[in-house]
Amino acid sequence: MISASTKRSTLAVILLLAAAMPAYAHVGIGTASSFTAGLAHPLSGLDHMTVMIAVGLWAALKGGKAIWAWPLAFVGVMLAGGALGMLHVPVPFIEPGILASVVALGLLVALAIDLPVSAGVAIIGLFALFHGHAHGTEVPENVGGLDYMAGFAMATALLHGFGLAAGLGVGSRFGGLARAAGAACAATGIGLAFGMV
């Protein structure tokens, strides 16, 4: 069981990191105009891979409805955020939000924070909005972007599935490994925030 003081300390760290983000988590890499580019893009950066896998790991640690609800929430809200980005609807704090997602989701896994499924959906959905918006803004004006977003959604779902499989397989026998992966995710986020990764 996680003590209240540990939870408060974790929240304080997340808020401090979100407030002081000198580096960009997300940088446009390659083209954003095809299904193949969308499929490849989540595999091209640590911010993408760690967050997507962390969602799956956290869902596996929670179990029950979270196994399908949390990954589905991420993919659905990410697509909505992508649409907002393609429509040039401004969303504040995109880069700090992406960085915070890497740290926060890593800590949620590392500390095995047990939240209600609805709270997890809200947290995951907020972070998915930032990730989706960043990718939607990459789509060129003269391209519809639907192929790119479909590829991105599929790769995201596959990474969630990898995290789920790891959490349900290895994590069920060796819970410490899933939590260590969460700690690695959080450390990656801190490294990205301060330009060390």
Mind sketching the topology for me?
Elements: H1 4-19, H2 35-40, H3 46-62, H4 66-86, H5 94-110, H6 117-136, H7 146-173, H8 175-193
Helix pairs in contact: 1-5, 3-4, 3-5, 3-7, 3-8, 4-6, 4-7, 5-6, 5-8, 7-8
Could you characterize the architecture of this molecule?
- The protein has 197 residues and is mainly α.
- The protein is 73% helix and 0% strand.
- Helix 3 (46-62) packs across helix 5 (94-110) and helix 4 (66-86) packs parallel to helix 6 (117-136).
Characteristic terms for this protein:
single chain; 197 residues; mainly alpha; globular
Summarize the structure.
73% of the residues lie in helices and 0% in strands. The chain has 197 residues and is an all-alpha fold.
Shape: globular
Percent of residues in helical segments? over 70%
Query: What would you report as the Rg, rounded to the nearest angstrom?
Result: 16 Å
Distance between the termini: 32 Å
Percent range for β-strand residues: under 5%
Mean pLDDT: 84
Tally of helical runs: 8
Question: How are helices and strands ordered from N to C?
Answer: HHHHHHHH
Low-confidence runs: 13-29
> What is the tally of beta strands?
0
Q: Which structural category do the helix and sheet elements fall into?
A: mainly alpha
Major β-sheet annotation: none
